[in-house]
Amino acid sequence: MTEPTRYSTAPVELPYSAVQEPKPVAGCPGCAELAKVRDRARAGGDQTTVSDCNVFLRRHPEGH
Question: Which of 10, 46, 52, 61 could form a disulfide with 41 if both were Cys (CB 3.0 to 4.6 A apart)?
Fold first, then answer.
């Protein structure tokens, strides 16, 4: 039998997601506002709001 590990192992690092952020559609005020909110959230360190804005921007083109 092998001996159990008696020390902490290194954390598992997940690969960085290569999914690009959606870009706002030119001339659309809704897209422009979402992009502004996303930029302010990123500057403030609020990654949850950044993620939410990305989801809304991806879904928004359905209304164009």
Answer: 46
